[in-house]
Design goal:
Shape: globular
Number of helices: 3
Radius of gyration: 21 Å
Number of domains: 2
Strand content: 35-45%
Number of strands: 17
Structural class: alpha+beta
CATH architecture of the largest domain: Sandwich
Order of helices and strands: HEEEEEEEEEHEEEEEEEEH
């Protein structure tokens, strides 16, 4: 009877230790999160740098190294710890290359580096973009975008748009810097730009067709985007 009690006590101790370790790991993961999913609809999946996959839903955490994928008719909005947000349209692949919020005391540690690999997005600047402009970068296979405190839309077309391939941008507020082909242009609020693969960026006067048919709100307004339905 005494031996049985000791065995039971040992099992309880091991279970408590395991739960404690799991809790600590979970807390560490949450603490290291770059952002949180505010809204999601449809099929939204994150792939980690080591090839692990997980479904994302409202409340899910997003980490540096994650690549977020949205399926057909699917949307997601991620809010980052510095107050910035990104809204991904259907058929988008977006990677959080490196995110770190150093705060006012250690702003030299700020990192807000992303990659648009496919599809389109709307990005609204947070504290990092306001206090340390060089700490933000959105890369793509065609061009790179920097910011000067802004709200902008980007659409990467690689054989999946009505118009020619390239990167299209629309600045809703502030200014963005579009770099490609060894040149850079400044695109202020109300302006559109286009960069074809291997070309230099150029401003365009009319709203691209790719934005006129966008299926998520916020592409050409100042309002906070919301998931449809």
């Amino acid at each position: 009877m005494k031996a049985e009690t000791m065995q039971r006590t040992g099992r309880v101790a091991v279970l408590a230790l395991a739960l404690g370790l799991l809790g600590a790991a979970g807390a560490a993961q949450a603490q290291g999160a770059a952002g949180t999913v505010n809204q999601a609809r449809g099929q939204v999946v994150a792939a980690t740098a080591d090839g692990q996959f997980r479904a994302l839903a409202q409340g899910s955490t997003v980490h540096s190294g994650d690549t977020i994928n949205t399926g057909p008719g699917s949307y997601v909005k991620v809010g980052f710890s510095d107050g910035s947000s990104v809204y991904l349209r259907p058929g988008t692949r977006f990677r959080v290359d490196e995110f770190a919020d150093g705060g006012e005391k250690e702003k030299e540690k700020d990192r807000s580096f992303f990659s648009l690999l496919k599809g389109g997005l709307r990005y609204v600047t947070g504290l990092i973009g306001r206090r340390n402009r060089d700490a933000f970068r959105l890369s793509s296979p065609v061009a790179t975008i920097g910011i000067r405190g802004t709200d902008f839309v980007a659409r990467l077309c690689l054989g999946d748009c009505l118009g020619p391939d390239g990167l299209y941008t629309q600045t809703n507020e502030g200014v963005i810097l579009v770099s490609g082909g060894g040149a850079e242009i400044t695109s202020p609020a109300g302006q559109f730009s286009y960069v074809c693969p291997g070309c230099v960026p150029e401003p365009i006067q009319a709203q691209p067709a790719e934005f006129q048919i966008e299926t998520y709100p916020g592409g050409d307004t100042q309002e906070e985007p919301e998931c449809p339905g």
